[in-house]
Amino acid sequence: MARLEINRSGEMEVFARVVELGGFSAAARAFRMTPSAVSKLVARLESRLGTRLVNRSTRKLQLTPEGGIFYERSIRVLADLDEAERSASSSESPAGRIRLNTNASYGTHILAPVVPEFLARYPGVMLNLVQTDAIIDLMEERTDVAVRAGPLKSSNLIARKLGATRMTIVAAPSYLERFGEPKSVAELHGHNRIGLCYARTIEGWPLLDGGQAVTVPIVGSTQTSDGEALRHLAVAGVGLARLATFTVREDIRAGRLRPVLEESNPGDLEEVHAVYLGQGGPLPARVRALLDFLGEKARVG
Predict the structure, then answer these.
(1) pLDDT of res. 279
(2) How far is CA 216 from the centre of its chain?
């Protein structure tokens, strides 16, 4: 077999495949090389860079912190090269894998219903959709785009606003039948107020009491890290919950939930953004297509 000529982009591609497939042997099969040739290539790359990229053992391969950084930057360089080649060959259709992270509520109520349209529009795209209400590190999780609700902290992420949603206190009719409906902010203190257990910018429910802004602590029998789980608990009659209106609209229409204390609702809005890594440079076509689609078909209101 002819010896594979490796340039810098070729080194990146082989190294990236070693990481993604979990070892030298699997990468060697993908490139029709010998495992020793792949091992020597990575060793030469480490020698040229002056740092160790992977820790080797008989059972597994583990990236060093420097290796993780080099891998992330390598896949971005390779994606840019793929984009350049597609553009040069007049192929404008976005293609490739997109890793999208979103909170459970947005993923369930806004995104999932329109994903089929996105995939039909871009058949060359493969979508990896991860739902979690935890804030992730996009680089560490190898994520292209994340959808986040609430105030954005200062970071190196670029944000595109997808709208804003009003917050509403709701309860199931079964709960209100057992414990009564609170008619004032003061009466909330006798009710089970369930909420989210991860750190929030607002430590409680902002409400209006006699025209004055107050914050009611979230003190109840249950807390969860998942907004959809919180909605299901409210529907089951566990307690009062304060949720984004778009997540409970159908429940209210169907009678599964009822708004509570609307006269004390300050009308505050929770903004939703799509965020991604970058310094303002060109985005891969597949990521640009997703961001444009979210802005067109998956806005929050």
Answers:
(1) 55
(2) 29
Of all helices (H) and strands (E), which one includes residue 12? helix 8-21
Whose CA is closest to 109, among 250, 257, 238, 273?
A: 250
Q: Hey, is 299 helix, strand or coil?
A: coil
Q: Does residue 291 lie within any of the structural domains?
A: yes
**pLDDT above 90: residue 56:** no
Whether 148 contacts 135, CB under 8 Å: yes
| Co-location of 171 and 265 in the same domain | yes
Residues 74, 15: contact at Cβ < 8 Å?
A: yes
Residues 255, 289, single domain; the answer is: no
163: three-class secondary structure by DSSP: strand
Tell me the three state secondary structure of residue 252: helix
Cα distance between residue 16 and residue 84, in whole Å: 19
Residue 1 located in a structural domain:
no
Maximum CA pair distance of the chain?
Answer: 83
Place of tokens 């902010």: 185
Split at pLDDT 50, 70, 90, the class of 154 is low
Question: Which whole-number Å values give the CA distances from 147 to 101, 153, 161, in the listed order?
Answer: 6, 14, 10
Residue type, 105: S
Domain containing residue 250: 165-269
Strands 54-56 and 61-63 turn out to be: antiparallel
Q: Which residue has the tokens 């793929």?
A: 82
